[in-house]
Structures are given as structure tokens and as C-alpha cells.
Design goal:
It is a single chain. By secondary structure, this protein is mainly alpha-helical. The chain has one domain. Helices cover about 75% and strands about 0% of the residues. It has a two-stranded antiparallel sheet. The longest helix is centred in the N-terminal third of the chain and has 29 residues. The protein starts with 6 loop residues before the first helix and ends with a helix.
Length: about 325
């Protein structure tokens, strides 16, 4: 059942940053004034909403790709699944979105963001819209729903619907869009042969790979990093986060020769791209740092931290990832 929703494709990459921004919302408010049981319930509800929405997007996309994947000879987890099972799973996932959304008592803004998120997922994947076949629009849509909208949703719900600086939220949104565009371009390069076999015109099939990579590494990545630094600067303990982020960048720049720059040399060559390496910060290190600050501000949040560690650092979960 888990392979039907392509769990391995999003569990380690989509969910951790969303949880992180939910925790940033908790940091921004005086969580100590809230009842612990209420905080825990809200976290579980939001986590359920996040997981269900991610599952919905990948499930719908996989379902709509069955025909194309068959033509291209690409494996599709749903190609041999009983149709009745697919409908049952769709209902369960939909309930996993609707019930937490109702219990969280979303306001008009968050309801609109969630509705927009679901709408974009559907427009991107299903006929007759299938906007994923419009090469430039597809990149923007993917970048928007794969992180940007849910990051903002996470902060707002985590902060119990408190208002924030508009400038700060714009910084978050455009950073997430830039990061999302970089990620989808990287993915399109990897999928270039599959899309070419189907004669789909994507950004990758329509442009030279080296040109796209140059755009990623010399324009998108520097701009993304600059936006992230500006976002962190206006955040609690922001200067500390910026220093750690810049230290990680030193590692990235010298990673081919050093495991620890200028201290521990690398004996074997690595194949990970710079794009993959920077995502490790967002998906692995940044969540841990934010949880540490959250626990420093409110010791009761060690419970949430423990839950996160169980989800992502127990042996069974590591095998799944």
C-alpha cells in the first residue's frame, strides 16, 4: 500500500521542511502559555494533514501517469493495482486531509491556501488540464505546491494563526519558489530520456543540459541562498542560523576534497551534486537546529523532538527511506 503513494519519494524530502516551518511558528509565539496536550494534538493533526496532502499529490500524479509510463517503459506502482483498491485509497487519503483540516479550525487564509494547494495538484496532474505538459508553467506550479504554499501554511498554523511581517512571509515564499524551481529542473534533467521517449517538451528536453545546470548553479542557487539568509536574519536566533548555514556552504564548496574542510580529506570521490548537497541542509540539519531552539525556548517540546527523531532516525524508518 505504501508504494501506491510513493512514500520513498517524499517522506524524507517533503515532510521534514514542512515540520520545520511548523516548529518555527511555535518558536514565534509564547507556546508556554498553551496547554501541552493542546499543542501535541495540533501537531499530530497538522502532521496528518501534511502526510495526507503529500500522499494525495503523489498518488494522483502516479495514477494519471499510468498510460504514459507504460508507453515509455517506466515502472509505475499503480499500473497493476486493482481499480477498487485505488478508489478506496483515494477516499482514505481525502479523509486524511479533510478531518485534520476541520479539527484544526482553519481560518479563511489557511483554508484558501490549502484549497489552492489541492487545486494546483489536480490541475498539474489530471486530464483534461494536465498542466505538467506545459513546460514552463509546469515548473512554476511544481515549485509552488511542492513547498512554498505549505511552508506558509505550516508557520501560520504552528503560530496559532498569529499575523507576521508581510515582508518576512514574502521572503519565505520566494525562497521556497526558487528552491522548488531548482529542484524540479534537477529532476527534469534526470527524467530527460523518459520525457524524450514520450516526445514531451519539457525544459530539459528543449534545452541543453549544461545550459540548465549553469542556470541552476550560477543564478538560482546563489539567489536562493541570499533569500534564505535574509529570511533567517529576521528570525529568532537568526544570526546563529546564518553562521551555521554559511559554515555548511564552506563544506559544499570544498566537499570534493574534504569531508571536513581543511581538516579531514576525502579519500573517495563523491557523485552528489551541489544541488543535492544543499538540500541535505534543508531536509536534515535545519530541522534538527530548529527543534533544538524550540526545546531551548520551551522544554516541553522535547516530546515533539522525540517524535520527530523516532520518525526519521530509528532503524526501521532509515531502512524505509
Amino acid at each position: 500500500m505504501l508504494r501506491y503513494i510513493r512514500l520513498k519519494d517524499w517522506w524524507s524530502f517533503i515532510v521534514p521542511p514542512i515540520i520545520t516551518f511548523y516548529c518555527i511558528g511555535l518558536i514565534l509565539i509564547n507556546a508556554k502559555s498553551s496547554i501541552l496536550s493542546s499543542l501535541l494534538l495540533s501537531f499530530v493533526l497538522f502532521l496528518t494533514l501534511t502526510i495526507s496532502t503529500a500522499a494525495f499529490g503523489f498518488f494522483i500524479n502516479e495514477w494519471s501517469d499510468i498510460k504514459d509510463d507504460t508507453i515509455a517503459g517506466k515502472a509505475n506502482a499503480l499500473s497493476n493495482a486493482p481499480r477498487q483498491s485505488l478508489y478506496v485509497l483515494l477516499v482514505l487519503i481525502s479523509c486524511g486531509i479533510a478531518l485534520p483540516a476541520y479539527l484544526l479550525k482553519l481560518n479563511n487564509t489557511t483554508r484558501l491556501i490549502l484549497l489552492l494547494q489541492i487545486t494546483l495538484l489536480l490541475l498539474y496532474s489530471i486530464p483534461p488540464f494536465r498542466l505538467k505538459r506545459f513546460k514552463y508553467l509546469a515548473v512554476i506550479l511544481d515549485a509552488t505546491y511542492s513547498g512554498a504554499l505549505f511552508y506558509i501554511l505550516a508557520i501560520i498554523i504552528g503560530a496559532n494563526f498569529h499575523r507576521f511581517s508581510t515582508t518576512w512571509m514574502y521572503l519565505l515564499f520566494f525562497w521556497a519558489i526558487t528552491k522548488g524551481i531548482r529542484n524540479i529542473l534537477h529532476h527534469l534533467i534526470q527524467d530527460k530520456k523518459h520525457d524524450a521517449a514520450l516526445r514531451f517538451k519539457t525544459v530539459a528536453t528543449s534545452n541543453n543540459t549544461s545550459t540548465i545546470e549553469h542556470f541552476i548553479y550560477y543564478i538560482l542557487l546563489p539567489f536562493e541562498s541570499l533569500l534564505f539568509v535574509f529570511f533567517l536574519y529576521r528570525f529568532y536566533f537568526g544570526k546563529l542560523f546564518i553562521i551555521l548555514y554559511l559554515v555548511y556552504w564552506i563544506y559544499i564548496l570544498f566537499r570534493k576534497n574534504y569531508i571536513i574542510p581543511f581538516i579531514v580529506k576525502r579519500k573517495q570521490a563523491i557523485t552528489q551534486s551541489m544541488s543535492t548537497e544543499i538540500n541535505v541542509f534543508y531536509e536534515k540539519l535545519f530541522p534538527l537546529l530548529v527543534f533544538m531552539v524550540l526545546c531551548y525556548k520551551d522544554g516541553r517540546m522535547l516530546i515533539l523532538f522525540a517524535l520527530y527523531l523516532i520518525m526519521y532516525y530509528t532503524p526501521s524508518m532509515l531502512k524505509r527511506q
